[in-house]
Amino acid sequence: MACSGEGDLKKLNADATILAFGDSLTLGVGANDEDAYPQKLEKLINLKVVNAGVSGEATAEGLQRLGAELDRYSPQLVILLEGGNDILRNYNLAQTKQNLAKMIEEIQSRNMQLILVGVPEKNIFSDSADLYQELSEQYNLVFDEKIIASLLKKQRYKSDPIHFNALGYEKLAERLREILDENGAL
Q: How far is CA 34 from CA 64, 166, 167, 169, in A?
């Protein structure tokens, strides 16, 4: 479910670029390049979606990289799916939250729209780590707290314990298309 509150999106221009920013779940580890969610989403919505995923990246590294990617692509909207490696490596979640907050502030300071996708904690019952909900409320974001955890709970969507297969990335792309549609971006 996308918790949108006041965070509804503006309709994307026909020539809009969407920047999919994140780690291996954005890059598409576990599937062929054309099966990564950004490529699947691009086909579903007929808009340019840039895959800016880096496998193994933690939020501190993503924060260092974000500005250059925003400069390079000037996206109208950013899909932020980052933090899984911080959680897997047991990094301090207060620092993870601070890094994500700085990324959100950087995106918003450029008047770019943003969708935040939550990553679960290492807990079978977790939808997403609390810090994602807190950030979505603090920054009034369009947010999905369940899709990643939901897909990770079903073996048929996974290529290994932490990555999706082509079907999993397709389901993620379909959910993001719904979020864009439900919030007025399409």
A: 27, 9, 12, 10
Residues 26-77 have pLDDT tens digits of 999 999 999 999 999 999 999 999 999 999 999 999 999 999 999 999 999 9
Q: Tell me the C-alpha distance between 47 and 49, whole Å.
A: 6
Q: At what angle do helices 37-45 and 166-182 cross, to 10 degrees?
A: 50
Report which residue type is found at 63.
L
User: Could you tell me the maximum CA-CA distance found in the chain, to the nearest angstrom?
Assistant: 41
pTM over 0.85: yes
Q: What is the pLDDT of residues 158-180, one digit of tens each?
A: 999 999 999 999 999 999 999 99
The answer for residues whose C-beta is within 8 angstroms of residue 54's C-beta and 6 or more apart is 22, 23, 24, 27, 61, 62, 65
Angle (nearest 5°) at CA 115 between 113 and 118: 155
Q: What is the DSSP letter of 58?
A: -
Position 69, amino acid = E
Beta bridge partners of 2: 144
